[in-house]
Amino acid sequence: MGTEVLEELSKAITIYDRGETERCARELVQRKMDPLKALDVMTEAIRQVGDGFGRGELWLPDLVGAAAAMEAATPIIEEEIKRVGATRESLGSIVIGTVFGDIHTIGKTMVATLLTAGGFAVVDLGINVTAESFLEGITEHHADILAMSALMTTTAPEQRKVIETLEREGLRDKIKIMVGGGAITEEFAKSIGADGYDPTAPGAVALAMRLMGKKQ
């Protein structure tokens, strides 16, 4: 019976059903099933969608839909993991967010979801994140990588401000920084001193692995 719920959870992600993924997640918790197993199932499902996107078999709306569906279940499963004291091996800790003044979330959410699927422990600070909040998140979660998104040209300079804040606090050399978003280019990323840039969500996962010295 438990296997059926896991299968339903996987299917719900691949058909982009937020309501169903949340229902399945709550049922798994209610049945006291292994939350790490549930997270593995979710990870494999989103990875399949990401791979399909990478091969050109699926499109951006598919990736957005699957990410949104997984996002509905992830907090429930992660809370259960904390409750039971389970641990999951990760490739590293990543703090991610959309910079101050920018409320766009879709691209950032896709990247966060695929990074989780790729094996990273991801802390999503959300949107409209100030430099000070990024700093607090990095310190609190002992992040290995900071990932920042900016969709608008008017908010792109906030990425530079965050990096400058880290420099002033003596933390810049202790963390890798990757940037992205519609307003960002490779040239801009280099000009502000970021460690890497990629224009796509799947590419961001590969970039994070490179920054951590991992092979994909």
Overall description:
The structure is a single chain. With 216 residues, this protein is α/β, with parallel strands linked by helices. It folds into two domains: 2-84, Methionine synthase domain (Methyltransferase, Methionine Synthase (B12-binding Domains), Chain A, domain 1), CATH 1.10.1240; 93-211, Rossmann fold (3-Layer(aba) Sandwich), CATH 3.40.50.280. It contains nine helices and five strands; from the N terminus they run ααααβαβαβαβαβα. α2 packs parallel to α4 (60-84), α3 (35-54) crosses α5 (106-117) and α6 (131-141) crosses α7.
Helices and strands in order:
Layout: H1 2-14, H2 18-30, H3 35-54, H4 60-84, E1 93-98, H5 106-117, E2 121-124, H6 131-141, E3 145-149, H7 157-168, E4 176-180, H8 186-191, E5 196-197, H9 201-211
Parallel strand pairs: 1-2, 1-3, 3-4, 4-5
CATH class of the largest domain: Alpha Beta
Provide the spatial order of strands within the biggest beta sheet.
Answer: 2-1-3-4-5
Percent helix among the residues? 55-70%
Record field, number of beta strands: 5
How many domain modules?
2
Structural class: alpha/beta
Percent of residues in beta strands? 5-15%
Largest sheet: 5 strands, parallel
- Summed up, the helix count is 9
* Element order: H for helix, E for strand: HHHHEHEHEHEHEH
Q: Look up the CATH topology of the largest domain.
A: Rossmann fold
